[in-house]
Amino acid sequence: MPNRQAYIYSLILSMLLISCKDPFEPELGDMPTEILVVEGYVELEGESIIKLSKTSPIQSENTGNLVLSAFVALSDAGNNRWEFEEKGDGLYSLEGNFPENSEYYLHIQLPNGETYISEAMKPVISPEIDVLDYIRDEEGVEIFISTKGTETSQYFLWTFEENWVFRPGVISNLIYDNGSIRRRTEEERIDRCWQKNINPFIVLQNAARFEDNTILQRELVRIPNFSEKLTQRYRIQVKQMALDQAAFDFWDILRRNSEDIGGIFSPLPSLITGNIQALSEGMPPAIGHISMGKTSTKEIYIDLNDVFPWPVFIQEYEFCNIFNDTIPPNPATITSTFASGNLIPARDIFNQMGALLGYRAAEQACTDCRLRGSNVRPEFWED
Amino acid sequence: MKIMKPIHLLIIIVLLISNFQESKAQDTESISGLFPGISFVRFAQQIESMSSYRFFFSKAELENFQVNISAKDNSIQQILNAVFDQTEYRYSIDGQKQIFITKYNALDLRLPEYFFNTNDKVGENDSLQRQNDIERAYSRNKLYVIGDPGPQKEASLKGKITGLETGDPVYGAVVFEKAEYRRAITNEEGFFDIRLPVGRHTLFIQNLGGFVEQRQISILGDGILDVAIEENIISLSEVTVSSDRMTNIARPEMGVQKLDIADMRRIPAILGEVDVIRSILTLPGVQTVGEASVGFNVRGGAADQNLILFNHATIYNPSHLFGLFSAFNPDVVESVELYKAGIPVQYGGRLSSVLDVNAKYGNSEKVKVSGGIGLLTGRLTVEGPIGEKTTFLVAGRSTYSDWLLNLLEENTDFQNGRAAFYDLNLNLSHQLNNKNIIRFNTYTSNDNFRFDRDTTFRYENLNFNLGWTHYFNEKFEAELVLGRDQYSFGIEGRDNAANAYDFGFNIQQDFIKANFKYELDFRHSLNFGVHTISYQLQPGFIRPSGLESIVVPEKVNQEQARETSIYIGDNFEINDQLSVSYGGRYVLYQFLGPNNSRTYASGQPIAAPNLVREQSFGPGEVIQNHHGPEFRISGRYILNNISSIKAGYNTGRQFIHLITNNAAIAPTDIWKLSDNNIRPQWGDQISLGYYRNLKVNKYELSIETYHRSLSNLLDFRSGSTLILNSTVEQALVRSEGRTYGAEILLRKNVGKLNGWLSYTYSRSLLRTAKDELAEKINGGDWYPNNFDQPHNAVLVGNYEWSKRFSTSLNANYSTGRPITLPVAKFNYGGSERVFFSDRNAYRIPDYFRIDLSVNIEGNHKVRKLAHSSWSLGVYNLLGRRNPYSVFFTPVNGVLEGYQLSIFAQPIPFITYNFKI
């Protein structure tokens, strides 16, 4: 019986070749899974924000392990000491002006008594951003920065915040309000929203390799064709920090640390520490490198007209349309159709005489841009 | 029960002489002279030249036996007693001053007691002794009438003596007629020719160590009589091991392990195949980072620090299916030598070890076929002569079950794994004349393997070389070899059509080497030569596969280099006890264009921001030279006949580097040549050993310790990517290494129960070089290397129940290899990040495995078409899930750790082997 034979062979071969994948949960022993994470930048002028959190176990699902009620302070080489004020959400803030020619230390005391202190921080002053601009090319828009370093500020880190206006798949200016339908007020608009993207990745550059420490047209962001970012108007605000070499190395390693591990083309494990040591015996150092200095910022806006034509494709709105059924304008039907909020009146239909025939609806996901952003205009937004 | 080997290898030339005497009642002839640690062969030649004694012995058996004695007017008996004291060799001397050296028992020069009894009585005794072998008893007593009656008084009887079981000709068997004291000895083809008076005779046919066979003949005229005699099978396996035993104490090099195929057969192998790599893994000081990992680690060295030679060909990947099988067909392999220290001066370019696998060149007598069929693979070897002066060997091995897998894929769940491989050998040897031999070797191995449907790994070795050996005279010989070695590796990713890719890299090296051996005098034997290798390395490329693929093709520049070395070494036997082997090499390495060289600001870390300039070089232009001397010295001091101490020191350089990323599901390799940024690896080793044979050589004990220092090793920087990195120097940190350890081997070679127990303590540590500026891994402290496995114990036991039936057990324990673990995660800079432990701060679970196998030899008594044997057993008897790789991968946004075990259950196997 060849089939039977084949079966036996298959059994043996599958035992041989179907490898066995078991979960691997190593015993970490003394390794503390909660390590203090310190993030932020101390500004010589203006507000400084320090964020405190703790690492979470690798297999847990939440990462927002914030540290509340901690004590954070800045001291200088003399006996001056400035305390940070807790802002909630693990954020601690300090406003002040500090002399440039001094060394500073950051002190952290956790509610459980653990104390940490940073290595000496020497402020580094960032020069002004020379140029922040963009080029339109075949693949989209590239936003670049040019800056000129000095002998003392050669390592640069840029973080940026993007904001843009987008529009939903179906534009509606109608609202269901307590059994009836009326026009939306300016505050109730759902056809124009702002979205933002803060610090999506780290951009680093060493100016020392260039002549005169000048960085020319360093790419910061690339906006690919069809991106919704340029639906109407887009803003990018770039903050430039000058770092010392230790901080630069920290950020460089951090940049290469990613969750994409275990694959053939994945980066190898990276070791991250920083410049904040625990004062308690046997405690691991905190993760994070706090730098101090003066940042410079710059922002630009890009309008649709600047890059026209810019076709937009938003996956969420790919199959959006207005339903053909006309919902009669009697309160009972309107309530049963729109009260749940899943459908939103998109159009009002009138006959030739101008009498209201009813409403046509669209899905909320297609109509309400607040599901993907905020309809509140940011304070800084310039039209 | 071992597979039968051609008997003539072991047979000692025996001359049976006409007057029978006790071996030690001789008229004495006094002998004087100094025989300082010379080979027995030379010792015998010297004695023969100064006296009328003649020696008869097996060269193969005594090849490695050394003589250390000084004589002043001593009798030959006194000398031989001293020489063979505490060894298994015995001697006997006959009246014609012929000295016969044998093993275990002195050759009894007397005829059996029944010799002068009547033929009838001999026949009767014989048949009583061997009642269950009626046929043979019948042959013994049957009267063979030979020839046609004629006028002559004497007739010539010719014939051929063959082994009863093997059918191989028996060399050196004695054919003896008692009444007239006529005798003849078979030649290498087993033929004899004896002249006998016409009439009735009893012929005795004796093969050394075997039974006396007899034939009753009535010879009337010239005729032919062929006789099959029984071979002594026990001595077959013993001999090979014993020759090693003597060398253990006497040979000047240390850290050398020799295994021949008979030893390897005792180790229960997966799927019943004798396996070179798995066999050497049972030796102390040889480890592997896990099941199914490529290569092996010797004394804490990396896998790329082993030079693996297969008849001169450098094998870059000695494994099939990522190490499940070794890539050497067992039917082709003759023996294996592993040099862990005391690497001979003719080898270089690797820091850790040399594994020299010797393949056969084919039987010169007749065409032979051997092979085997297992559950997964089949193999076939054909060897034999072509004409008088040429021999060939063709061998192939392959998985044959691909069709089966295809068939099964449709109607079973079998869809994850897929494996196929083959290897082919063709070896030719042609003797031009007495002084010139030409040899041609070709080898290829090819592998296809996948863990899942989407990703196929494939790799291929392709090697060929041509060698010419020339003997100028008895003392001077030369060997010239030129050849090409290729290795290529590829991954086919077919996850989806849009990002289907082909990734790969390959290495090609062309080499030419000339090696000379010159025996200067009795004390010195010189070895010198030149060796040039030209490398071409394609470090990596990726290509889209299929029209829909959007993968961007990428390619790292091809690298070229040339490595030339000259060397000279001397084996100097200072006196009876002390022998020294010393030598030196000088290596010139040139990194060549076409390529771009990158120069980084001095005093700055090698990193993109510090790139000063990039310069391009044309073909053949020298981009960077590296050169320097290497030293080899090792000495042996014999304490007494059963023990010796040895010490050695050697240095080496290595210009080709392997960097392995073992954080992935399947470890992925990157090869790199030294250039202007990556310096050659340098290493030295100091070692000390003590060797002793116990209980009359029944047990062999060796203890070796070593310490190695290494510099310019490479480890990866935090978060770097090695694959397809065209500036890979920016992803590496220069490190220094330190390995040290002790190896203990207790071996029992004789008896029904034999085997060995080995224990290795070995540490292999790395530290970022002091002047490395880019990154200090683990704060610049020592940390364990990827293959640091402090404890390793291996037990190989073999019990021979009978000549045909034996069982073997193999137990293997080692500490799990180090690993860098992701221990926590956190948010920083707007993204989720992973916090890793210190480099290699944790270990994967320990490794433990027991294998059991049973070997059954075919019937020896009956002449059959094929000699066959069965090997069956269980691999991983306990079914322990030893991890092959440990990796972390995000599942639904959460990093999950997995350990992949390849042999997670007990794997039964059965293999049928045959020899025609």
**How much helix is in the residues of chain A?**
10-25%
How many DSSP H or I helices of chain B? 9
From the N-terminal CA to the C-terminal CA of chain A, the straight-line distance is 81 Å
The CATH class of one domain in chain A, by name, is: Mainly Beta
What oligomerization state is this entry in? heterodimer
Tally of individual helices of chain A: 5
Regions of chain B with pLDDT < 50 over 5+ consecutive residues? 1-26, 116-134, 233-246, 407-414
Please provide the count of β strands of chain B: 57
The backbone outline of chain B, from C-alpha atoms, is: globular
Describe this structure in words.
- The complex is a heterodimer of chains A (383) and B (916).
- Chain A is mainly beta and 383 residues long.
- Chain A has a domain at 36-122: Immunoglobulin-like (Sandwich), CATH 2.60.40.
- Chain A is built from 5 helices and 26 strands.
- In chain A, strands 7-8-3-2-22-11 form a 6-stranded mixed beta sheet, with no helix packed on it. Chain A has a 5-stranded antiparallel beta sheet with strand order 6-5-9-10-21, with no helix packed on it. In chain A, strands 14, 17, 18, 20 and 23 form a 5-stranded antiparallel beta sheet that branches.
- The longest helix of chain A has 16 residues, at 2-17.
- Chain B has a 22-stranded antiparallel barrel. In chain B, strands 6-12-11-8-9 form a 5-stranded mixed beta sheet. A 5-stranded mixed beta sheet of chain B has the order 15-22-23-18-19.
- In chain B, a hairpin with a 2-residue loop joins strand 18 and strand 19.
- Chain B starts with 30 loop residues before the first strand and ends with a strand.
- Strand 1 of chain A pairs antiparallel with strand 56 of chain B, so a sheet runs across the interface.
